From TrEMBL:
Name listed for the protein in its UniProt record: Carnosine N-methyltransferase 2
Species name: Nibea albiflora (Yellow drum)
Amino acid sequence: MAAEAKQTCYEGSSVESFQFYLEHSGEHKAILQHIQDILPGEFKRIAAGKSGLDVIGVGSGGGEVDVQMLTMLQSAVPAVPITADIVEGSSELTDNFRALVAKTSNLQKIPFVWHIMNSEDYERQVKAKGDMKRFDFIHMIQMIYYVDSLADTIKFYHSLLKSNWQVYDHPDGGWDTLWKTYKKDLCVHPITEYRSSSEVIACVKSQGLKYEEHIIPNSFDITECFNPDSPIGRAFAEFHDSQGPLL
C-alpha cells in the first residue's frame, strides 16, 4: 500500500477525538510512569563522555510524552546541552507541542527543529539531502502502524543513531489477541495491519540489533464501545470511523 494511504494526520475535530482517547485510555500516563523508572539511568549511560546530546522524536503528537522525557534528560545530565528534532505529520498537534514547550521553562534552553511531515517523508528528505544528522536518542510512540515497511523504518532510524543502538519494547498482551482475533473489523481506514511487539522484535532480531523488552501495565475497559447509548462509547466509535483505531 502506498505510504500516503497509511498516513494519519490529526487536524480539526480529529485532534479533539485524539485527546479524548488519550484522556480516557490512560496510555500516556502508563508510559510516563514506566519511563521514569527506566530512562534516567539510560540517559546517564548515553551521555557518558559526550559534550552534547541530540534527540529526535518521531510521531510525537502534542508532545506530552516528549516534554517529560526531555525534562528527565535535563535532570539526568544537567551540564550537557541538548538539541531536539521533532517529526510529526499534524500541524495542529505540532502547534500544541510548541505551546507546551512555551509553558515549560526548563525547555527554553533546548533548540527545537520542527519537521511537519510523516516518518517516510522525513526519511526521503534526509536521503535526498545526503547529509544525515545523527542522534544519541530516538523515540517513537504509536507510529509503526502508519509506515509502509516496519523493517525499512527500523533500519533507517538505526542508521541515524550515533552509537549504542538499543530498542526498548513492551509486550502487547491482550491487545495483540484482540487485534488478531478481530482484524477484519479493526484494521480499516488508515490502519490495515496491526503491528504488535512481536513484529518489532522479529524485525530487530533479523537485523541483528540489541533490544530489551519491558512490561508496561495498563488496562482499558472497552465495554462502553458496545453501548449505543453511551456518550463515551459513541466518541470512541466516531474516532475509529474518522481515523482508524489508535491502540
